[in-house]
Design the sequence.
């Protein structure tokens, strides 16, 4: 890695810096931890926490802002330019990616308040109990496991919802019988977060292995039978990924899960990442998901992205070490 790229990454937000120190420089644990503690008090993390309501929620809702749910209850269809990403679930999912220390006082307080007050728009379920869509429940599991909540009942429901092909699909309650890349990556991230919290069981390990096979059998972005690219947008790297799938998200998940980086079925996906490296050694932000956001984390699509550069570099480091 070029020194100027490393310096550029370390010149970013504390949420970037602590992960660069951990994943790209192998800095001592105490240095990484000290930088990580700053997420709660400086930069993006502090700005997001300042937007939290007194009841622990963001924008007064679980998956959608309160004003959207209010419109639905009145039988109205709110005018939206994309999905709003300002409610509690997408904000907590972003806080997890930023790396807010789950043992910090503010994280513990937020966890308690969300458990007490936040309810799903679907049917008023308690936040950490989840609702009915696998992509939402996978993200909720990832957040809950990260924050130290007992998520065992939701884990069991997700294990039971795994489809015959090894994937998951948000439309399964409406009859879908084949996996969705979007739903599958959300659930896999949740199950791996649960396992990493110290709750790995044989059934969870087996479900994760089957889910990984679902992705690997498709080379992470190809049709299993046709071999064609399923969706060109999956080759565009986003941050935050929200509930959407892309190749870099999948590779970074497999790295974090401790998957074998020398699996030949990863070759095409890794080649996509390598080809997107710019002459200056950085990667671009390519596809920002439309919708209202609390913060602008990057300079816009088509511009160098610290998040994508960090994630691409640590994925390639994982692959090259194999």
Sequence:
């Amino acid at each position: 890695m070029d020194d100027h790229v490393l310096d550029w990454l370390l010149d970013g937000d504390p949420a970037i810096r602590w992960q660069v120190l951990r994943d790209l420089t192998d800095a001592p644990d105490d240095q990484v931890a000290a930088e990580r503690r700053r997420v709660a008090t400086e930069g993006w993390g502090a700005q997001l926490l300042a937007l939290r309501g007194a009841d622990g929620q963001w924008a007064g809702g679980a998956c959608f802002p309160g004003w959207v749910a209010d419109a639905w209850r009145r039988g109205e269809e709110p005018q939206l330019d994309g999905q709003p990403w300002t409610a509690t679930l997408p904000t907590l999912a972003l806080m997890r990616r930023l790396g807010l220390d789950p043992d910090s006082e503010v994280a513990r307080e937020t966890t308690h308040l969300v458990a007490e007050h936040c309810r799903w728009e679907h049917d008023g379920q308690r936040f950490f109990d989840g609702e009915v869509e696998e992509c939402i429940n996978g993200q909720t599991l990832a957040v809950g496991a990260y924050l130290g909540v007992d998520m065992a009942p939701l884990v069991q429901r997700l294990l039971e919802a795994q489809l015959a092909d090894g994937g998951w699909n948000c439309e399964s309650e409406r009859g879908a019988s084949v996996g969705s890349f979007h739903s599958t990556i959300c659930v896999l991230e949740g199950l791996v977060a649960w396992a990493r919290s110290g709750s790995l069981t044989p059934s969870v390990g087996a479900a994760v292995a089957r889910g990984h096979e679902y992705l690997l059998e498709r080379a992470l972005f190809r049709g299993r039978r046709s071999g064609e690219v399923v969706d060109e947008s999956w080759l565009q790297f986003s941050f935050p990924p929200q509930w959407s799938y892309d190749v870099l998200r999948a590779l970074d998940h497999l790295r974090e899960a401790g998957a074998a980086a020398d699996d030949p079925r990863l070759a095409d996906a890794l080649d996509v990442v390598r080809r997107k490296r710019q002459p200056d050694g950085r990667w671009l932000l390519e596809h920002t998901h439309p919708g209202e956001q609390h913060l602008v984390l990057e300079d816009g699509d088509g511009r160098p992205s610290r998040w994508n550069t960090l994630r691409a570099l640590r994925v390639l480091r994982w692959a090259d070490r194999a």
